[in-house]
Design goal:
Length: 264
C-alpha cells in the first residue's frame, strides 16, 4: 500500500490549473482511487526516470493490499476497469487498465511540475480513512498538507469543492461548514455583520485550527441554516479573490517536516 502522496510546490498553488484538476472528481471512490494511482505512478516515475521512456505499469494489488482507506466492496473489477480506462486527466498522457495491470505514461506537463522544484508537500492517506463525502475528502487533502492553523478564501472553496453549481450562496456556505464539522475541525467563518459594516481583511475566509478536535461547533441541520451566513453584501464579492493565495506560504508543510516530525 502507498502511504503518502507527495505533491510538487507548483501543484499546490491555486494559480496553476493543475491544482483544480487534482480535485476534479464528484465521486468519493473515484477521488480516492485516483490519488492512490497518481501517488504510485509518481513513485515509479521518480524511481525509473529516464531509464524507461515508454509506458510503465504496476499491479492493482499494489494499491489495494493492506489498504484500509479504499473501500474494496465498491471497487469491483468492472468499476475499476471503467474508471481507469475512461480517465481523462492532464496528469497522464496515457493510462489504461487490463489484466489487473495499470499501464500509464505521465504527461509532459506533470513531469515538468515534478522536476521544476525540490520542494514537495506530503499528504498522509490515513487522513482519508472513514471519510465518505467527496467534498469533505477534498477539504481533508487541503488541510492535510498545511500546518495547524490558517484560512481559505470563500470563493476558493466554492471552486475547489465544486459548489458553484449550487444557486443559493447560503447553501454553499452551509455545505462548507458541514465539511469542516464532519472532519471534526475547529473553524470560524468570518464576514461583515451586514452590508453596512466595514469589510475587514479577515472577512469572507474560513479560518481553521487543526490543533484540537472541534467539539463545540453547532451541528448544522438542513432545516436550520444559520442566518448569519448570508447577507446582501455576500452577493458582491470581487471574483479576483479566486486568484488570491489560499493560505500564507509559511503555513505550508514540507515533506521533510512530515518525515522528521517538525511540530512547528
Amino acid at each position: 500500500m502507498i502511504n503518502y502522496i507527495t505533491l510538487p510546490q507548483e501543484l499546490i498553488s491555486n494559480k496553476n490549473n493543475f491544482h483544480y484538476k487534482l480535485f476534479d472528481f464528484d465521486n468519493i471512490y473515484h477521488f480516492k482511487l485516483f490519488l492512490f494511482i497518481l501517488a504510485k505512478a509518481t513513485v515509479i516515475y521518480k524511481t525509473n526516470k529516464k531509464r524507461i521512456k515508454g509506458m510503465q505499469s504496476f499491479h492493482i494489488s499494489e494499491i489495494f493490499t493492506n489498504n484500509d482507506v479504499l473501500s474494496k466492496g465498491s471497487m469491483t473489477y468492472e468499476n475499476i476497469n471503467k474508471f481507469i480506462n475512461g480517465l481523462d486527466t492532464p496528469f497522464f498522457k496515457e493510462i489504461g487498465y487490463s489484466n489487473k495491470e495499470v499501464n500509464f505514461k505521465l504527461s509532459h506537463q506533470y513531469i515538468k511540475l515534478l522536476l521544476s522544484t525540490e520542494n514537495h508537500y506530503c499528504f498522509d492517506f490515513q487522513k482519508l480513512k472513514g471519510v465518505r463525502d467527496v467534498r469533505a475528502a477534498k477539504l481533508q487533502v487541503l488541510l492535510g498538507i498545511y500546518k495547524k492553523s490558517g484560512f481559505f478564501h470563500l470563493n476558493y472553496l466554492f471552486k475547489v469543492l465544486d459548489l458553484n453549481k449550487i444557486a443559493r450562496r447560503d447553501r454553499k456556505i452551509y455545505k462548507i461548514k458541514h465539511c469542516f464539522n464532519s472532519l471534526g475541525v475547529e473553524f470560524n467563518y468570518k464576514h461583515p455583520v451586514n452590508q453596512y459594516t466595514e469589510r475587514k481583511d479577515e472577512d469572507y475566509k474560513f479560518h481553521y485550527n487543526l490543533e484540537a478536535k472541534n467539539i463545540s461547533n453547532e451541528r448544522l441541520d438542513d432545516d436550520k441554516l444559520i442566518d448569519d451566513i448570508f447577507n446582501a453584501d455576500d452577493l458582491f464579492l470581487n471574483n479576483e479573490e479566486v486568484e488570491k493565495s489560499i493560505i500564507s506560504s509559511n503555513n505550508l508543510l514540507l515533506v521533510n517536516e512530515v518525515i522528521y516530525g517538525n511540530d512547528e
